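Hi support team,

I've been running sequence recovery on a batch of backbones for a student project. Most finish fine, but this one hangs at about 90% for roughly twenty minutes before it completes. I'm not sure whether the input is malformed or the queue is just slow. I've pasted the structure tokens below so you can try to reproduce it. Let me know if you need the job ID as well.

Thanks,
M.K.
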């Protein structure tokens, strides 16, 4: 079971906030980490009569892996049959479509195609079919070049045949996480951001308390959903049997004016990737009309290394931009990086601790973690209920609200619907972000919602303000002006929390 390969010296950055907000707080379940797994778990736990608190060291949900990914709902073809990755990938994909309707987040079943350069590789078609069957894939189709070109006419010509997975999908990863979090809040879950876990008190194989920069919490059960820092949390609880080694992936975003090029997610893996731990990336449509190139995959020493490189961009262009006709480097509006929480076993760790009887691990959740998250959350919640049932009677939450409704983007509405909204609230008639057609009213709602944005990036992720070609070059001053009008002091506003302040001071008096 022991997997550690040397104790890492790297430690997570600590919040600059220090207060007694959580002083002596007692909860039934403490979830550490507000990524997609933590938020989905909180929502599952809210189906029961219990007190749940989610803490995260960042200023918002989904600040790391859960937003820095391609937004793919993967078919379970890559995971090894019998692995937890394969199990949760299959289960998660099957419930995503229904969840998207229930919680009102963007999801599309667009399909995924893998291209093969030579017909000689068709000898492996039987192995692909066998693996697909073992992993529960219900729809797989082998296509000739002519057949695929009739479906996707812009696909490049240098391939012989293709394998199509119809039930693959795409999702907005941040809004999916937000949907879980907001629905959890609807059902009584509390969130505490800028909350750093400093130490964990363990006695006789049980967690007694968790010390944070905002006070000491006394939980009955702790869920370790700390993503890149899950091994750090496990170490604090004297239960570190795994190590997270970060694997960075860079991605490029294509201007939405190119959205008509392809509908399918397209990938062409190299033969050298047969035994690789990465799926190789590709050309991926998004639910918002952009295309993504990537990701790359590179082992890095630091967990929050989000630097981008010219070499990474060149690799993305060389490997993936060529998959369709009509893409050029001028179509790229920005590029970014994310790191995956890989373990040396390259599998998920979803289990009760074997040493600490009130600790549950949801760790090592790298790709296809986004797809798997809803299913992982179901099992983690069940484990929490089992542990709690040893000392209390756990009852269903008869007042649980399963549905959550989001305001549709103003951009997507008909002229008649837009006019009605403007008549109700004139702020809908003020367009702040011209690229994405985001209105002043949408920004106001983003900072006054059940889980409000407190940073510029928080506004951006909730509204898409600043996600167009100009990347916030024109709209940022108007966003800050709107926030100031809402009595939010922009002198304290940060881009992404911490010390990333946007405004350094006033240039003149009031």
């Amino acid at each position: 079971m022991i997997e550690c390969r040397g104790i890492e010296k790297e430690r997570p950055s600590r919040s600059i906030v220090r207060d007694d907000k959580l002083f002596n707080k007692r909860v039934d379940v403490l979830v550490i980490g507000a990524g997609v797994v933590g938020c989905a778990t909180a929502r599952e736990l809210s189906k029961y009569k219990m007190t749940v608190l989610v803490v995260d060291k960042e200023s918002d949900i989904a600040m790391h892996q859960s937003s820095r990914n391609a937004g793919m709902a993967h078919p379970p073809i890559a995971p090894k049959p019998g692995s937890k990755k394969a199990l949760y990938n299959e289960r998660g994909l099957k419930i995503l479509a229904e969840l998207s309707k229930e919680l009102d987040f963007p999801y599309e079943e667009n399909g995924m195609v893998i291209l093969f350069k030579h017909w000689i590789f068709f000898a492996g078609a039987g192995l692909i079919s066998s693996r697909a069957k073992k992993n529960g894939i219900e729809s797989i189709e082998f296509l000739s070049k002519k057949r695929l070109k009739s479906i996707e006419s812009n696909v490049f010509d240098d391939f012989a045949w293709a394998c199509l997975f119809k039930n693959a999908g795409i999702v907005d990863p941040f809004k999916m996480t937000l949907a879980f979090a907001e629905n959890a809040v609807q059902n009584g879950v509390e969130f505490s951001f800028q909350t750093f876990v400093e130490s964990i008190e363990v006695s006789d194989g049980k967690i007694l308390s968790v010390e944070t920069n905002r006070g000491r919490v006394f939980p009955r059960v702790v869920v370790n959903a700390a993503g890149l820092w899950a091994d750090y949390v496990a170490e604090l609880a004297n239960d570190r049997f795994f190590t997270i080694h970060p694997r960075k992936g860079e991605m490029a975003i294509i201007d939405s004016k190119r959205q008509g090029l392809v509908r399918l997610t397209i990938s062409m893996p190299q033969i050298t990737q047969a035994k690789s731990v990465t799926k190789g990336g590709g050309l991926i449509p998004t639910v918002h009309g952009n295309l993504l190139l990537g990701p790359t995959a590179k082992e890095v020493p630091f967990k929050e290394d989000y630097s981008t490189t010219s070499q990474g961009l060149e690799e993305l262009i060389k490997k993936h931009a060529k998959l369709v006709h009509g893409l050029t480097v001028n179509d790229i509006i920005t590029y970014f990086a994310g790191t995956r929480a890989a373990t040396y076993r390259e599998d998920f760790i979803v289990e009760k601790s074997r040493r600490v009887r009130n600790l549950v691990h949801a760790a090592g959740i790298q790709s296809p973690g986004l797809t798997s998250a809803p299913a992982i959350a179901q099992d983690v919640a069940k484990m929490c209920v089992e542990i709690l049932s040893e000392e209390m009677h756990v009852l269903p939450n008869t007042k649980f609200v399963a549905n959550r409704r989001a305001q549709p983007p103003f951009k997507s509405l008909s002229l008649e619907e837009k006019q009605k909204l403007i008549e109700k609230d004139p702020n809908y008639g003020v367009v702040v972000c011209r690229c994405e057609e985001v209105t002043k009213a949408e920004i106001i709602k983003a900072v006054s919602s059940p889980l409000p944005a407190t940073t510029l990036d928080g506004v951006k992720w909730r509204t898409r303000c600043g996600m167009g070609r100009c990347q916030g070059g024109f709209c940022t001053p108007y966003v800050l002006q709107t926030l100031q009008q809402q009595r939010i002091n922009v002198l304290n506003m940060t881009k992404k929390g911490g010390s990333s302040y946007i405004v350094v001071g006033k240039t003149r008096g009031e």
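--
Follow-up from support: It reproduced on our side and the slowdown came from queue contention, not your input. The radius of gyration is 23 Å. No action needed from you.
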